[in-house]
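Thread: Newbie trying to understand structure tokens

Hi all, I'm a second-year student working on a class project, and my supervisor (Dr. K.) asked me to get a predicted structure for one chain before our next meeting. I've only ever worked with sequences, so writing a 3D structure as a token string is new to me. If someone could post the tokens and maybe explain what I'm looking at, I'd be very grateful. Here's the chain:
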Amino acid sequence: MERKLAAILAADVVGYSALMENDEAGTYERLMALRKEVLEPKISGIRGRIFKLMGDGLLAEFGSVVDAVECAASLQDSLAARNASVEKAHRIELRIGINLGEIIIDGDDRYGDSVNISARLQQLADPGGICVSGKVAREVDRKLAFDFESMGEQHVKNISEPIPAYRLVRTHSPTRQQQNRPLASPNKTSIAVLPFANMSGDPEQEYFADGLAEEIIVALGRLPGLLVIARNSSFAYRGSDVDVRKVGSDLNVRYVLSGSVRRGGSRLRMTAQMADAESSAHIWAETFDRELADVFAIQDEVTQRVVDALKLKLTPAQTAKPTGGGINDVEALDLLMRGRALLAGPTQNLEVYRRATDLIRRAIERDPTYVDALGALATAHNMDYLNRWTDDPDGSLNEAERLADRMVELAPDHAYGHFQAALTAMFARDFDRFRREAAIVIALNPDAGIASNLQGHLCLVNEVPLEAIPHYERAMRLDPSLDTTLHFLQFLGIAYFYGGRYETAAALFRERILLKPDTDWSRGYLASALGHLGKFEEARQVWAELMAVNPKYVLPERLNRSAAQARQIEMVLDGARKAGLLISAI
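---
Reply by user tm_fold:
Sure, no problem. This is what the structure looks like when written as tokens:
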């Protein structure tokens, strides 16, 4: 029997028995007409497949969860239109439930917990409504014009683990402002900074245009009360024909900042404009034609224009520039931009690591107090520690710790320095220092994505893992790019795992494996979760895949490079032992 990941849509007729009792022949005719005219053509037209028909309902399979939700909404719209001219006693209304998970394929039929969960969610839906699992809500959020209102964790028949359930709500619904969406921030002013267009006529200058936009993202990210979408997500919108309204809808932001850069000799020409994403109307636009050495002043002016336009209230301390060098050396800035572009690129390996660190070290040689460059070098060393590119990853971690200490010394009010110190402390399993540094980052700017990231990790370290979930979900909201999603799917899975929610954890790990087939990290946790669930054969199959991906993988050693506490590490090892997996000891 084959297994695969799919979205399952379950639908049934509200009050079917009463309808049949009152008018059996008429109800049957209306239901057959509904299937022929609406259900079957819409489901097949949106790339779905009905695999089971019951007297009062159906089950359908979709390869895309977005298609499944779109189809469900379309079905309910069609039914509402049909019912408008039908007497209430004769109306046919549906309840729809949708889940995303692994299914078992047996001929034309589909089986498994995911199918059962879809049916249970359907029973939780309102008449004419749609109820989805937490996995569906996370996957679809920001991709369609719907909101999801939490219904809490639901205990349902024949499913051992509680199911996080969400009610689908249209964005034009009057209840939208009353919702408590964990991923949205309606009370925060929000902005996305798009990559600046390179107008220099030299494709190799792309890094400089990107670097200027990134510098502005960093500067805006320090402002309190302003939600700034991370670089990875906003930089996905590259090109001159970007629809501002689409960016606003996709990233759930109110404002969009864009611009262009032309660098020639000692001159720099930069344009910047900010638009309202709801109306696409420009709020302000300006052109800066200066000496290249004035690039730092231009960045400050753009940031101040955003502050003025959005009427942000800053204290004198917040208005002051953070301490740290490099602010007058264009060559150091250029070297840093080149190095960061490599680290953020699609290829990450030993060669890229060496080239990037060489460029960033040269920037630091020009100005040993350049805090941003010290942070970029610490990031590179942390990447080596995690990926084991060099022969001395532990040495890289020690160097990252030294650089973080230097950042904190030079700029005690610079959140990124404390963020680097928190990360290196976490990797070194110095949890007391991790807690101290994380608290400083959160206090300096609680709205920043790095603050949400650390708050989630704090919950894991403090062994309240389920409390980490909203923090990780908010971090994903601020950076919904694929790379970041891959990271936080793992963190969410770990949080549910340590919270004893093995079924939900397993689904998240499976989703990450689907998106990142070469992951060994997710397969290790998935095998353990399956062991806890008593699915020993499946756990051994996942472990065999892990060994094929990375024959040198040692589960205890990998866990001891994580932020897991001793009890949490034992939970993972215990699940692996239950499944009879051969795990080497360190």
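A couple of things are worth pointing out once you decode it. The chain has a mean pLDDT of 85. The domain at 2-178 is CATH 3.30.70.1230 (Alpha-Beta Plaits). Feel free to ask follow-ups in this thread.
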